[in-house]
Structure formats: C-alpha cells, structure tokens
User: Which sequence fits this backbone?
C-alpha cells in the first residue's frame, strides 16, 4: 500500500511531470523563472496549494457531485465552478494564514501567492485526478508529487536562465524566445523518462 | 446646463467605432499579442495545437469566453468589492466555460473528447483573467468587449499558425486533408518524398515553434526586443 503511494508520487513528479510532460502552469513558469530565488518561493507555494486542494476537491467530487453522493444526482456539470472556487478560496486562506503566522515567508512569496489561483497546473491536477479515479490517499500523493515535479522544473529553468545571460544570444531571441526553446529542450529530456516503470524504484 | 447635456449625449453615443476602438482590436494581433508579447495563455496553446481543427475550435471558444467575460465584468465592475474580485471573476469565467463545454459536447462530441480537460482549462487561461484585471475592471462595457474580441483573436491567430506548422510537418495534412507524405488519393503524389516527423506532434515542438515565432516577430517589430 505504502509503496503504491510512493509509486504515484514518483510517477507524478518525474514521469508525468505537470510542467515538462503536460506543459501545465506555463504562464507563471515562464514569467517567474528569471531568478532562482523567486522560482524557489513560487515552487514551494505550488507544492503547498496542490497538496491541499487535491484532497479537498477529491472529497467534493466524491461526496457532493457523484451520483452516489449527498444529493443523489449527477452534478458533474458543476465541477469546474466548484473546483475553481475551492482553489481560489484555498489560495486566499493560505495567504491569510501565512501572513499571520510567518510574515517572513509571506514577504518572500509576495505576489506569487495570489497568482497561483490561475496556475493551470492546480486546476489541471484536480481534473487529472478525477480522470484517473484515484482514491483519497492516492490523490494526496498525486498532489504532493505533482507539486514537487513542478517545483523541480521551475528551479531548473531558472538556473539555466540565470546562466544564459552570459551567452551571446541573438537580440530578438533574448529573454522570452530563449526561455521557450530551453523549455522545449528540457521537455525532450523529460520525455526520455516516459515509459519507465515507477515500481522499479 | 448646456454642458451637461452635451456630456449626456456623448455618453449615449458611446458605442462607436473610431480610431481608438480599432486600435483595441488590432493591437493584440501585433504589438501586444497575448502569446508572444504578454506571455499569457501558453498552456492551452501548447496542448491543442497538434491539429488545425482542434486549434480552430479552441480559438472560437476563447474569443467567445474572453468577449463575454470582459463584457460582464465591465458591467459589474462598480459593484464588485475589491477583496473578493478574483472569486467573482472566476465565477463569471467558469459559468461561460461551462456553457461552452456543454454546447461543444452537444454539437461535436469527437472534438470535445479530443480537447478533453483543455476546454475546462480555459478558466485558468491567463489571457482571460489577465484582461479582466488589466482592462475590464477599469473600462466601459463597449471598449471591454472590443478588447476581449481583439485579445481572443490575437490568441487564436497564433494558435492556428502553430497548429498549421505542426500538422503539416507532423502529420503531412492540413485540416485533416493529406497534403504531403505518402498518399494514395493525392493526384500528383508530389510530396511522397516526405516522411512525417513525429517530433512535431509531441509537446516540445510547440515550444520550438512558438520560440521561433517570437524570434521572427521580434526581429520584425524591433520595439519588442528584451533589453535586459
């Protein structure tokens, strides 16, 4: 049982990496990856929010929206609205809690905390979780693993982008264009992980 | 008295199409393009551009959602409390996306199946949220609607260009019709030397194609070059 959860964690972090295999959460990934320090803060916040919203959305889709749930009817057409409301309110809640109990972390995260609401990795993760029919503990592992994979990806690209400033890139390709091409190359590298059996770990 | 009358008249004739309004429509197509300049809405642009017809449906959906989300937010902008504005905006967007999702499911089920979660992910498409924050919260409904259409189209154009490149080189077809590659139906069989490149169908190629598009766009429009 435990090894199965570990499998899901490793699979969602490396083999089905949300950023580099599914290309989710690309907007903040490209916009916030200019320095490693900010990328680190955003990555941590994403792990946190994914880890919290995934089980909550699992409870909602199982006990409220499904046919065997509380209302006894199929309410899946409300899924998108409820999921995004949960994510938005969780982000708001996390923001308030962090501000109250750890002002230093709050200051280092800054604007990136509210930005997580529109990070498609979060909503995409929840939708994938429904599509893959995970149970409760598996959805926690999937959320944490997905967040960890995203964290690794954004740190990697930020480190490359910090170094590439010293290279002679054509002016029109500097910044954004180069970031796109780098992400493509990283995606190709991550594709080689596909097909690995997570049970081998 | 006379002055206020003029002001009222101007307010009534606010739906007009002058130079400023045209700029709202054309700017997002070039110098303020959502994808290549504002870097918004990348995720869906990467995922749905393997086939032109998928990209086409997605572009229409985004134009629709962007236009009406801008319009509704702009109508409500004076009544939304600042603290909860994100949730209100998201509910408006989620409502519109649900309408699109159910409509598409009814009209064209195969395409709906192929687009899968990415129709749902229009909610978190940063273009829509970004335009609501940056434009619709501060401008009147008519201008906001135009801005929504403009940004939707700017997004759609890039989407269709990328999809065209990827479909032609990856599958040897365009809009589902075989163009190059080994075809039996094709009269002259001109392109039979070309073997479809599978890499173009995979995700990383979208990154390369958009990266090169940005390169071309910036060498042609020099104001956009990143100085830092």
Assistant:
């Amino acid at each position: 049982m435990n090894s199965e959860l570990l499998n899901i964690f490793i699979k969602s972090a490396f083999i089905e990496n949300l950023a580099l295999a599914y290309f989710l959460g690309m907007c903040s990934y490209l916009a916030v990856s200019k320095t490693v320090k900010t990328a680190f803060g955003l990555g941590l916040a994403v792990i946190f929010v994914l880890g919290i919203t995934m089980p909550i959305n699992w409870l909602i889709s199982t006990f409220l929206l499904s046919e065997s749930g509380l209302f006894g009817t199929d309410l899946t057409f409300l899924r998108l609205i409820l999921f995004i409301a949960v994510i938005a309110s969780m982000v708001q809640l996390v923001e308030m809690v962090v501000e109250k109990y750890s002002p230093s972390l709050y200051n280092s995260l800054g604007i990136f905390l509210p930005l997580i609401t529109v990070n498609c990795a979060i909503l995409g993760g929840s939708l994938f979780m429904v599509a893959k029919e995970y149970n409760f503990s598996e959805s926690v592992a999937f959320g944490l693993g997905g967040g960890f994979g995203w964290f690794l990806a954004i740190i990697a690209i930020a480190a490359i982008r910090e170094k590439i400033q010293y290279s002679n890139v054509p002016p029109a390709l500097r910044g954004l264009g180069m970031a796109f091409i780098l992400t493509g190359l990283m995606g190709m590298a991550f594709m080689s992980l596909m097909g690995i059996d997570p049970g081998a770990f | 008295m006379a002055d206020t009358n003029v002001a009222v008249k101007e307010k009534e004739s606010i739906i007009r199409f002058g130079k400023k309004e045209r700029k709202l429509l054309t700017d997002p197509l070039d110098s303020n393009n959502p994808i290549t300049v504002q870097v918004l809405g990348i995720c869906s642009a990467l995922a749905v551009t393997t086939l032109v017809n998928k990209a086409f449906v997605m572009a229409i959906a985004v134009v629709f959602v962007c236009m009406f989300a801008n319009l509704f937010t702009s109508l409500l902008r004076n009544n939304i409390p600042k603290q909860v504005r994100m949730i209100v905006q998201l509910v408006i967007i989620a409502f519109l996306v649900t309408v699109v999702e159910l409509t598409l499911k009814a009209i064209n089920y195969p395409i709906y199946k192929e687009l899968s979660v990415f129709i749902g992910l229009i909610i978190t498409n940063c273009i829509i949220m970004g335009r609501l924050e940056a434009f619709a919260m501060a401008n009147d409904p008519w201008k906001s609607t135009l801005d929504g259409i403009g940004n939707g189209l700017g997004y759609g154009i890039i989407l269709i260009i990328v999809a065209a490149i990827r479909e032609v080189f990856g599958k040897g077809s365009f809009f589902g019709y075989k163009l190059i590659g080994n075809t039996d139906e094709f009269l002259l069989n001109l392109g039979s030397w070309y073997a479809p490149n599978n890499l173009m169908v995979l995700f990383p190629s979208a990154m390369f194609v958009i990266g090169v598009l940005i390169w071309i766009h910036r060498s042609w429009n020099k104001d956009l070059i990143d100085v830092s």
